[in-house]
Automatic annotation (TrEMBL):
Keyword Transport: yes
Protein name in the entry: Fatty acid-binding protein, muscle
Annotated organism of origin: Culex pipiens (House mosquito)
UniProt KW keywords: Lipid-binding, Transport
InterPro entries reported for this sequence: Calycin (IPR012674), Fatty_acid-bd (IPR000463), ILBP (IPR031259), Lipocln_cytosolic_FA-bd_dom (IPR000566)
Length: 148
């Protein structure tokens, strides 16, 4: 007779889905990012830096946690989380947010909430590239990364 196991298999299969994202990614294209940052209320000087910075994103998983490191000449950030569990995050522009990352189909979806506001990042793999769509109050930016 088959043995039914609860819990861990779900986590494991979810992390297997994350494997497609596990790599080192270099920004190669950015569309409408300045407008997106402006909509968030990011100041002029920080936007100028954000527009010229080409970050490298390293995605991995350690045990049941996913780790996303964003590395650039401007600032390095790292988040570590379990899928579907809310965690505290300080963004590159110093917002203190509550973040949740989950898998929706083949997409890695991150929602940041603060002060009654919400922004959403959808990461998907298209033609071997990672395409990240950022949305805040109707303003959308698309950033495309290639494997480094």
């Amino acid at each position: 007779s088959a043995t039914v196991r609860a819990g861990p298999l779900c986590v494991s299969s979810s992390l297997n889905m994350v494997d497609a994202f596990c790599a080192t990614w270099k920004l190669v294209d950015s569309q409408n990012f300045d407008e997106y940052m402006k909509s968030l209320g990011v100041g002029f000087a920080t936007r100028q830096v954000g527009n010229v910075t080409k970050p490298t994103i390293v995605i991995s998983h350690e045990g049941d946690k996913v780790v996303i490191k964003t590395l650039s000449t401007f600032k390095n950030t790292e988040i570590s989380f379990k899928l579907g569990e809310e965690f505290d995050e300080t963004t590159a522009d110093d917002r203190h947010v509550k973040s949740t990352v989950s898998l929706e189909g083949d997409n890695l979806v991150q929602v940041q909430r603060w002060d009654g506001k919400e922004t959403k990042f959808v990461r998907e793999i298209k033609d071997g590239k990672m395409v990240m769509t950022l949305t805040f109050e109707g303003v959308q930016a698309v950033r495309t990364y290639e494997k480094a």
